[in-house]
Amino acid sequence: MALRTPEQYFESLRDGRTVWFRGKPVDDVTRHPVIGKATRHGALDFAMAEDPAYRDLAVVEEGGQQYSRFYRIPRSTEDLLLRSRLIEAGTTAGNTLVVLLKEIGTDAIFALLAVTAELDGPYHDRVQRFYEHCRDNDLALSVAQTDAKGDRMLRPSEQEDPDMYLRVVERRADGVVVRGAKFHTSCTTNANEVIVLPTRAMGPEEQDWSIAFAVPVNTPGVRLIASPYGDRETRAMEHPITHEHKMMETMTIFDDVFVPSDRIFLDGDTAAAGALALTFVEYHRFTAVSYKLPLVDAICGAAALAADYNGIASAGHVRDKFARLIAYAETLRAMTEKAAERCVPKPGGQVAPDPMTVNIAKSHFAHGYHEAVQHLQEIAGGLLVTAPGAEDWSTEELRPFLQKYLAGRKGVSGEQRTRLLNFVADLTAGEYGPYQELLAIHAEGSLEAEKLQILRSYQQNGRAAQVIATVAGMAGV
After folding, report:
1. What is this structure's pTM?
2. Which domains does the chain have, with CATH numbers?
3. Is 392:402 a contact under the CB 8 Å cutoff?
4. In this predicted model, what pLDDT tens digit does every residue of 435-465 receive, in sequence order?
């Protein structure tokens, strides 16, 4: 089963997993009114592989086998660029919301393959077998990395409660038992496997916290508490994005979960734990900037349409905002592509996006996103939060007034303008807007984490020393 249909994907989720939503257990995530929406959104990854419009991009044919391009181990700039374009296409199909069901999991697998290739012991072979299992069964994956952390000023081994970072609490001949909780685990409610990674570098005495593994989501002791954020009722006309598309976020609890030996990819190697955490974000921040591209393009396109419909496209301040939005979006796209072109070698013939470039791209996006939203909202106007509702448009007595007074420039009907403004409102002013704004700051690493990686990469690749030496020569010092 190299490729699955959406229906096969749905069926695989009816496996007795333990999911809670607003204090109640969920029997079937595919039929739940909120989680089911996220499940249908996740099915885009599988539907695209069947769609002739995307098949050449979404599917790889290799050695007589077909499998999802997400599982293609990147070995060249071209591999990275095609991966980026597939992420962009999937996010566009999701109306600016990334799917993330195979993207993030394969980021983790690539990092595991690269790091374990340089370790002694059975870990690399285990990762290779797990990779083949996921690829050949077309599995949906999530990643659990961010720990509860407790007191952020204390290390894992210094916490009053040692479970604030996920750890091994028992070692057996056939595996380990782990305990802890991971936060911000996107899509876990509707994934098949969850991959667990260390969240940070570990000290020499922190072997128990230096653990990486994968288990099926329905493993006994794995409990998912799904976030209710964004669960309000939506209407197709008022919420053209969130009526159809959603991603679930969970607090994932590992309550003395047994992990068999063949699913343990790192155990006790404190140095490798830090390397794995860093390598994962090298891949995952490239995924991040790739899925931000349709989002910033949507902001640019919506701003252009709103200005046109409002009759202000030629105004000087609007043209200035257009120029800023275009520069913001196209700089992000250029840096994303450059990160692939500057790819760096990894063990086993892999490549990874250039860490410095991809972190600059991510920082550029994060620091500019709120200003971009501001420009769009200024152009669109106050109707983003004061316009009549879908029920008003369905009322025969009211509809003529709405068509008359909500019309824009000549040729733009009231309904046409309202539908555009509802898209902008859903994108920037409803619950989805703050969700994306918070992701811009915190997802795939904080602003400070990106800054540190830029500094580290600039020093490690020799550019810092080269620039300093050149200036010293110019200055004669």
Report:
1. 0.94
2. 274-475 (1.20.140.10)
3. yes
4. 999 999 888 878 888 888 888 888 888 888 8
